[in-house]
Amino acid sequence: MIITIGLIVLLDGFNNLIMQVLAISFWFFPSLLVNLCYMLSFMFIFSDYCNISLYDSYLRRFRRYRFLSSLAKIHNSLSRSQSHFFRGNFLDALKLLEEIDLTALEKRPTYKLAYELLWTLSMIMSDQVFDFQAVINRVKSVEADQATIEKVVNELEAVRDIMLLKKENSFFEEAIPNSNLKKVYYDFYKSQNRLLSGNKVSGKETFQELAQGNSDLFMVRYAKDYLKGNNESVK
Questions:
Q1: DSSP string of the chain?
Q2: Contact between 184 and 210 (Cβ < 8 Å)
């Protein structure tokens, strides 16, 4: 069953010849199929289609599969936590992050930065008290390229400014999303920033666009609640 799901997700749109060749390869090397499908699942199911329910089901199945590499297991924990974050279950997201062995992230800067970003976002959105500067220091100590580190720092500072300090920050006005899910995420904070700047018309327009999305995402539910509270119908 899990092999079938992986093939459907990974090979949708491929011609029959390619499918046959890959199927034969995966029959002899099942770990290749499992890990390749797993690592690509975020892009196909969640990031592009924002189908969080299907993604959760996919993660649960792969979590139990014995062919998962150590890297895929870390990815699974981060992905499950991220799923909780986008559902608005911030405390559950934090609980799942506690399962990750932080020492395993030291040599994996991409995962280390993802962890710090997700942990901090969940702390902010759940109104937890923490040392923000300590997080920034940890991010800056990660051995990654400077541009990536600066982007993570700027993103965290923007969310901190907008959600905690209630002051304007233009990061999300200028940032370019690279997926549909990232656009929902950016638009949520962008709309909040526009309301803080006094630009209520533009803020409402962004909420109107957000409200058309999947209600499993807390950003979409927030947008609908905001419009309803301001006697605005979802167009």
A1: -HHHHHHHHHHTT--HHHHHHHHHHHHH-HHHHHHHHHHHHIIIIIITT--HHHHHHHHHHHHT-TT--HHHHHHHHHHHHHHHHHHT-HHHHHHHHTTS-GGGGTT-HHHHHHHHHHHHHHHHHTT----HHHHHHHHHHSSS-HHHHHHHHHHHHHHIIIIII-----HHHH---SSHHHHHHHHHHHHHHHHHTT-HHHHHHHHHHHTTS-TTSHHHHHHHHHHHHTT----
A2: yes
Half-sphere exposure for 34 (CA within 13 Å, toward CB): 21
Residue with token string 């690279």 = 178
Question: pLDDT of 131-156, one tens digit each?
Answer: 999 999 999 999 999 999 999 999 99
CA-CA distance, 202 to 191, in Å (whole number)?
7
CA dist 127 and 129 (Å) reads 7
**Which tokens belong to 168?**
């304007």
> What predicted TM-score, i.e. pTM, was given to this entire model?
0.79
